[in-house]
Amino acid sequence: MIDRPTYVDKVMAYTDAPFVKVLTGVRRCGKSTILKMIMEKLRTERNIPEDHIVSRRYDSMEYVDMTAKEMFADLKANLSHTGKTYLFLDEVQEIAGWERVVNSLASDHDVDLYVTGSNSRMMSSEISTYLTGRYIAFRVYTLSFAEYLTFKQSYGAVGDPKSELADYVRLGGFPATRLQNYSQDEIYTIVRDIYNSTIFSDIVKRNQVRKIDQLERVVKYTFSNVGNTFSAKSISDYLKSESRKIDNETVYSYLEKLEKAYLIHRCSRYDLQGKEILKTQEKFYLADTSLRYSVLGYNAGTVASSLENAVYLELCRRGYAVYIGKTSDGEIDFVAARQNEKLYVQVTQTISSEKTEKREYNRLLEIRDNYPKYVLTTDEFAGGNYEGIKTMHIADFLLSSEY
User: Fewer CB near the last or first residue (10 Å), C or N of the chain?
Assistant: First the structure.
């Protein structure tokens, strides 16, 4: 296993605290492996005896048709009679009524609980209903650019980060695709399997979706329009133009299901003048850039929006709430806020003309505050400072520790 200290250290800071540690995220983003890493650290660094660590993986055939009552009986029977038991419950949402089991164990027994999940029953809004005041949620993402380079280094030579960025955006960061030197076709085969299992297990089967073809058309439209503002109505109108009738509410329902399966992220617009979040013309970004290319095929013309997607995910990984900034006459790609911090980011693949340069910088110059402002690009000699605005290569930004 290749260590992911960003997550392991963050979760272990709450070891033995009276909270259920809940790890959520898209399928195959590494949640199960992070649990294994935590278990290993408990054994080796905290000298927790083996019989005080209990692990279950509920997406295994072994637990098919298990009831909540059976789940509780099994776990209770395996609790230590002397001292705390550390319970690791992977893909816990597969057991209907899991929340009552976890609540009961956390309330009535000497346990330290860690759970993972990959679908809507593990969304923060759902967890708060089941585990009121008793949990801490950790969102796990696919590999960051820094993690991607670390994984790649384990089996081969790593080039200059600026040249590696193209592969990272094209091939994505699902950990399973970076365990050895897979070809592009092999990587996309792995990612398509993740996509298909998510669509059919977490969306179609769980929500009893009957019109699968309709759902997939909405998915493909969304994947094709990463980084573009659109609405349920614009998708509905597009599908109607292709003689595929679908109402706005159905489109909205499909988008919500994709979001709850962690395949897409909704990015709302924020009015920089009115200081309010707007409810229309949102953007959607993918859980991993490879999803787009594994489903739709690789297209060099989409690299610019995939770079934007990579920057969006990195800001989310670092704990920022991310919005699209609406100005009086345009948009700022990202307004990112975290506690008392804020930063503004413009992403452009290349600054190829004076017109592009003026557009990217002038929108940031309109903002009259002292928070950091960035223009990110893949231009070879990107760098420097323009009237207080930092220009950086996207690879440098993704690896930077300064924000």
Answer: N
134 and 156 share one domain:
no
Residues 123 and 158 in one domain: no
Residue 35, domain CATH: 3.40.50.300
Closest CA to 53 of 16, 85, 31, 90: 85
Sheet bearing 331-338, strands edge to edge: 276-286, 264-271, 321-326, 331-338, 341-347, 373-377, 389-393, 385-386
Do 90 and 185 share a structural domain? no
Q: Among residues 107, 139, 171, which one ends one of the domains?
A: 139
Write down the pLDDT at residue 397.
97
Q: For strands 276-286 and 264-271, give the pairing.
A: antiparallel
Can you tell me the distance from the alpha carbon of 13 to that of 5, in angstroms, rounded to the nearest whole number? Answer: 12
Q: Where are the beta strands (DSSP E) in 95-199?
A: 111-117, 135-139
SS3 of residue 139 by DSSP: strand
pLDDT at site 263: 96
Q: Decide which of 104, 139, 174 is a domain's last residue.
A: 139
pLDDT at 133: 76
Q: Could you tell me if 115 and 19 are in contact, meaning their C-beta atoms sit under 8 angstroms apart?
A: no
> Distance (Å, rounded) from C-alpha 204 to C-alpha 33?
26
Look at residue 239 in the predicted model and tell me its pLDDT.
Answer: 87
Give pLDDT, residue 380. Answer: 82
Residues 84 and 158 in one domain: no
Q: Which residues pair with 90 in a beta bridge?
A: 57
In which domain, by residue range, is 336 found? 147-399
pLDDT in tens, 49-102: 999 999 999 999 999 999 999 999 999 999 999 999 999 999 998 898 898 999
Residue 116 and residue 135: Cα distance in Å, rounded?
A: 12
- Those residues of the chain that have pLDDT short of 50 are none
What's the pLDDT score for residue 322?
97
- Domain count for the chain, please give it: 2
Report DSSP letters for 225-268, one per residue. Answer: TTTS-B-HHHHHHHHHHTT----HHHHHHHHHHHHHTTSEEEEE
CB 216 within 8 A of CB 201: no
Structure tokens at 234: 């614009």
Measured CA to CA, the distance from residue 89 to residue 60 in angstroms comes to 12
Helix-helix angle 289-296:184-197, to 10 degrees: 100
Structure tokens at 226: 């990463």
Same domain membership, residue 152 and residue 124: no
The pLDDT value given to residue 381: 75
Strand partners, 264: 286
